[in-house]
């Protein structure tokens, strides 16, 4: 077993012995006999041993220093693989790679054995993961709190061009990094009714009775800070049935209840809902929300009370950040605990709660807003509902006072209205901070979506432009470029990305340009190999790699991209001699299982790929690749290999985007609309180093407010567009079923029962997009200038580190204390 910490000198022999020992005790095997998976487990346990030392030390130090702690409450943590990242943050990656090589083991193959922990859908869940990395690296006390889904985001297989969802049994081989903590189990109660009893002190006691309960068992995952010995905790909750009844004493009713409770426990953490930016209103989803929130809030309060005596000062040591509205029941749950368990008055409990909870909004898409029917909400969470009703009653009184006689204000702002509980309103009214995730997004919240709330409580509103961790998305994902950056500006960028601006002076340096393009080429070769292995498609690493990877959603407009590819293909067929720089269009995207147009778009991409990739008459100038099962682990390789970053959402719809930042960090040029954080990316790198096109968010919002536009005018007047659209319904890409893509055609041209024609302005932006794509091609032909722009993108990406984002959360919202660990063997300094 390892005895020293990796922060002290890495002991190679000790590590090798530890791996051999683990293979023996875990599997009764020698290294030669062990499978790849078993070697992965043995390596992971050897590293965990090191991490646990640091973990214990960190928690001991936190107990001593008692810093304020943030609980990042989130339904999703899209962590990605842990092993490589942990090694990076322990600053032990190269040493371990060497040690494994001594043993005849390739570290890449070992890393590749780990299933991606995919407890998230996309941007929102990955943001949570980046934030945890930054919090640990910057020395802030933090817990991530979430759900240990038995099945995470589904695995995607493509069969006959269609997406097939395959269950993600990520725990099949066990998760070596987690620790089960049964001593912190909590009971969570659902259903029943609330009775009021007056106790001996004359106080009202609210008791939930006739309920069903579930036992919540926490599993802890270590979150390793970079090079600082700090290890924070991601605490994810599993569900187990409560052991509840003695066999002799149960009658029929007890038996029924026991069975129901067991089913509840079995179902509740079974699977992640695979919806991104979409509210489905399922009862089980609300159960999941209350399940992990009740357990997390109970634990936060208990932990606080173990060391403090005055619950009225809870907010001085604890803050809850609500990652979207999904955890918003935390507000009422905290009120409940403060009043029912600690006997605070309403006003006392409210004073604490409103200084503890803060809310992040991640979207303005109407279909993503959580609005629970009263019937469902009150049946499942009767006590919580009472509390929300009272919050609502008091809030409405306040609105009436401030806007006398304005019924409309109440209709627009009430928390409970029209038979529904509006979770965003609850979060805004009951928290001390409301933030958007990019400047433009926050402005739209203030001026449009949340205007009434902004008017009434402007002091709560603030912007926190998203960020990403450079440790995973450059240092781990792109080791060649990371080394090159370090060679030019030193390695401070790893914990202070602003330092990467030192690269600017190399943008016009011919040698630097050549080195950069060479690294990009090698990364393209690496991705080409992956694509050949996984997709059986051969792509030319000398072509332009033009990439759109993100969840499939109509507002993200993958359809615009593929329609444009169809248009280019038509152009090439018309004129095979035309100037055309070879291009590889790469897509990666999962569609929500029930999202028809999204799934059909995947089929269209693959159908176009089939035709284009196999048409000898275009001489391989266009290749279209749909990468199966886009996930964090292959994303790291994809960003590293990209030349062009497609960020083409309908302006105003993408709250921020974070993939855009990962591409930029890896030296891809943005082809995008003025949406989300693209605005700030362009502000940093300069318009001349990006390709911007299309409607502005103001223009989009104006169209929306004044009845849209008529895509038929474009269809009638533009033969190129008309031809492409006709190809959706004339069998060009589906000769066996000419009606296959009719729904996509209809979405663009025919007003549907629930939506306008071309709601996302694809036809309106089509020609500007095609024109921007021509600029891309022209720019790429000038290799030196392209390299200059690419280097500048890397150099100007400093703002988009999640370290910067977290520091802003700390300064403006959380006010956490920075923790520095004393050097081992040193007495800690007095505070
Ligand atoms: C927003 F509302 C949601 C959601 O349900 N899921 C999700 O991933 C994303 N998001 C936004 O769509 C992105 O623009 C943003 O960068 C990301 O959240 C993180 O803030």
TrEMBL record:
Alphabetized SUPFAM superfamilies for the sequence: UDP-Glycosyltransferase/glycogen phosphorylase (SSF53756)
Cofactor: pyridoxal 5'-phosphate
Its EC number(s): 2.4.1.1
Single GO molecular function: pyridoxal phosphate binding
Any one of the GO BP annotations: glycogen catabolic process
Any single Gene Ontology cellular-component annotation: cytoplasm
Keywords, sorted A to Z: Allosteric enzyme, Carbohydrate metabolism, Glycosyltransferase, Pyridoxal phosphate, Transferase
Principal EC category: transferase
Domain of life: Bacteria
Role this protein plays: Allosteric enzyme that catalyzes the rate-limiting step in glycogen catabolism, the phosphorolytic cleavage of glycogen to produce glucose-1-phosphate, and plays a central role in maintaining cellular and organismal glucose homeostasis.
Family of the protein in this entry: Belongs to the glycogen phosphorylase family.
Name of this protein: Alpha-1,4 glucan phosphorylase
Organism annotation: Eisenbergiella massiliensis
